[in-house]
Design brief:
The protein has about 130 residues and is of the alpha+beta class. Helix content is about 30%, strand content about 30%. It has 3 helices and 4 strands, in the order ββαααββ. It has helices at about 35-50, 55-65, 70-80, and strands at about 5-20, 25-35, 85-90, 90-105. A 4-stranded antiparallel β-sheet has the order 2-1-4-3. Helix 1 runs antiparallel to helix 2 and helix 1 runs antiparallel to helix 3.
């Protein structure tokens, strides 16, 4: 029986929510990072990208997180501790979470036969629109 080795990493998510809204937060995106540096860079890249579009207070908060809090962030991730950062822009809160995770390798199908139904799938043809 083959041995399944897990790989340590981080599961990163970006959530948005309307402040004072009645709906729960919405998952905007996720990312699997295989190192603390990669997880930290994922959040930092997004913050750098969106900061020009944020209001003044939110933009300043983003740059504070990027520069002043960078060392604390990296320490937490290197200790494999969960980490969260939120930015509020007008009436929307954007929250990034980074949590330690163990990733399982994907199974390859070269050594096994697929079930017969796998060959029944026929992709839909795309139709040109006028």
């Amino acid at each position: 029986m083959p041995r399944t080795a897990t790989r340590p990493g981080f599961w990163c998510e970006c959530w948005t929510e309307k402040i004072g809204g009645r709906q729960p937060p919405t998952l905007f995106g996720s990312f699997d990072a295989y190192s603390a540096v990669e997880a930290n860079n994922w959040v930092a890249t997004i913050l750098r990208t969106i900061s020009p579009a944020l209001d003044t207070a939110a933009s300043q908060e983003a740059w504070t997180r990027l520069h002043d809090d960078r060392i604390d962030t990296r320490r937490a991730l290197l200790r494999r501790k969960p980490w969260t950062v939120s930015i509020t822009h007008v009436s929307t809160r954007i929250t990034w979470t980074v949590r330690p995770a163990l990733f399982l390798p994907m199974a390859h199908r070269r050594a096994m036969e697929l079930p017969s139904c796998a060959y029944d799938f026929k992709p839909h043809r795309t139709h040109a629109t006028d």
